[in-house]
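Request: Show me your protein:
***
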Amino acid sequence: MKVTTDACIQGAWSPLLPRVKRVLDIGTGTGLLSLMLAQRNPDVIIDAIELDSDAAAQANENVSASAWDHSVSVVQGDVCNYPFSHKYDLIISNPPFFNNSLLSDKTNKNMARHTGYLSYVALLKVIEENLSGEGYASVLLPFAEYQVWSKLIQEAGWFEFDRLFVKHTPDAAAKRVVCVFGRQALSSKEETLVIKQDGVYTQEFTALLSPYYLDL
């Protein structure tokens, strides 16, 4: 599983409020989001679940080699039927998001990128079952898929209160959206992050990612 700029943005930007004690990372892949959240607050307890056994093994290796192995537990299993023993204050996911594109011949790539393995309805059900009453969730999606997701959560009675539109350049259309939502209506904010301008990283991008990138 590749580490993407978009996922790094989600891990750095998603709110990590003081009340968050337990986090569930759905489809952890390399363990990137879990490790970023653990770096931001080493006291949180993070369960990182991954369906693909090879990816889960890689996440385990990455966590073990980090300074935050005491914070993150990697679980190999299907999130749709895994018997979690806790409710979570924050659930974060960079889920499969291509609803209609052609499948590749690589099964693990399909699992990571296509909703045939974890539909939006199924993902929302998992979040609903495992999120604490005052908890909230962060989901990263392409802009078109975000529009589908936003409608789905609104129809289910959830409240979207933070969103970040990610643009590669100032004149480009938003390509990704980080959507933050919960059961309670909170004051909302909407931001736009531009990654590059005139071929170099913007100050906003550099400020957000410099704690995690070695070359910023």
User: Anything to note?
Assistant: The helical segments are 5-13, 32-40, 53-64, 107-113, 120-130, 143-155, 203-209. The chain has one domain: 5-209. Residues 143-155 form the longest helix (13 residues). The domain at 5-209 is CATH 3.40.50.150 (Rossmann fold).
